[in-house]
Amino acid sequence: MSVYIAGTGSYLPEKLLTNADLEKRVETSDEWIRVRTGIEERHIAAAGEATSDMARIAAERALKAAGITGADLSAIVIATSTPDHTFPNTACLLQHALDCGPIFCCDLCAACSGLVYALETASALIRSNKKYRYVLVCGAEKLSSIVDWDDRNTCVLFGDGAGAFVLENRDGDDKFPISCLGADGTYSETIILPGGGSRNPTSHETVDQRMHYIHMQGRETFKLAIKAMVDSSNNVLSAAGVAPEEVALVIPHQANRRIIQAVAQRLAVPPDRVFDNINRYGNTSASSIGIAFDDAVSTGRLKRGDLVLLTAFGSGLTWGAMLLRY
Fold first, then answer.
1. How many angstroms separate the CA atoms of 105 and 226, rounded?
2. Residue ranges, the chain, pLDDT below 70
3. Cis peptide before 177 (omega within 30 of 0)
């Protein structure tokens, strides 16, 4: 059984937050943000717009591209760190919104690596059982709900959005996708949301200490990210017997332009074969690769049959790379 990408879709909220807007909010500047991150603007969800709402629109677009409806789906896997609720899972809410039948639904939390983890999970489902004909994979995040808008080091980085894939189970012996995923909990506090879980349940104290916002050690994250993305990418290419020059496009997690450039350089991939849309969207965590992939499809950067390398890192510390055929 082969895993075929039948359709992709994405969604970005209407509201734009520019660097100029942030200059009015915290002590920063457009130049400082652009030089250090490559970000110029990001999309911010409306007050009543939840993660599942964004996921639904991205999913509907992916389903339309695949030529199917929600009733045809066999499973839904959503990667998110910002679910609508602690429970039920966001995938169940999406299942209801898409009018699916009683199918397998789960959320997966691996932060910015989440979509690669979710694609691997969905691919394993497809290869394990023919009953999984179509699997919807979605990365969706409302990071604006957990960003400290008074922290100049983090509020400039993040945006909201969703990206989706419809994976189809087809007869064949295509070996792709091939992945290399990993994690190291030693660095679990490098990027963390300290409050709200069983360790620090919500209380007046956790709210007063601003524990319900993203806390990040930026310099440490930068170094760890580059090594994790490069090592996992090289492992995947080696396992597949594919040289870097055979890859049509590298789509890295859109966290920071300097990270993207460093990864490309160490992989010996020329800039014109590395997808970069961070200037328009910022870091959208688990949705960034899905949004970028759909961007690449809609703009003609990807053609059927192309080999695509996805690579990401995230809180955990998690990381992953996946080589797939579009």
1. 32
2. none
3. yes
- Measured distance CA(318)–CA(322) in Å, rounded: 14
R_g over Cα of the chain: 19
**Which single residue is written with the structure tokens 């995040």?**
141
- In angstroms, rounded to a whole number, what is the distance separating the alpha carbons of residues 319 and 326? 22
Looking up tokens 């209407």, which residue turns up? 14
At 172 the pLDDT is 86
Q: How far apart are CA 99 and CA 222, in angstroms?
A: 42
**Same fold? 2-170, 178-325:** yes
Catalytic residue among 138, 215, 253, 256: 253
Residues 142 and 161: their CA atoms lie apart, in Å, by 7
Q: Specify whether 212 is catalytic.
A: no
Bridge partners, residue 135, by sequence: 75, 167
Task: Please list, in sequence order, all residues whose beta carbon lies within 8 angstroms of the beta carbon of residue 238, skipping any fewer than 6 positions away.
Answer: none
**Residue 173: per-residue pLDDT:** 85
Active site residue 279: no
273 φ, ψ (degrees, to nearest 5): -115, 20
pLDDT score recorded for residue 219: 86
For residues 305 and 303, give the distance between their C-alpha atoms in angstroms, rounded to a whole number. 6
Distance CA 5, CA 176 (A): 11
Residue of 112, 138, 155, 180 marked catalytic: 112
Could you confirm whether 277 is annotated as catalytic? no
Q: Which CATH architecture has domain 2-170?
A: 3-Layer(aba) Sandwich (3.40)
**Domain definitions of the chain by residue range:** 2-170, 178-325
Cα separation, 315 vs 297, whole angstroms: 28
Alpha-carbon distance 279 to 42, whole Å? Answer: 8
d(CA 157, CA 117): 22
Contact 191, 158 (CB under 8 A): no
Which residues on adjacent β-strands are paired with residue 182?
319
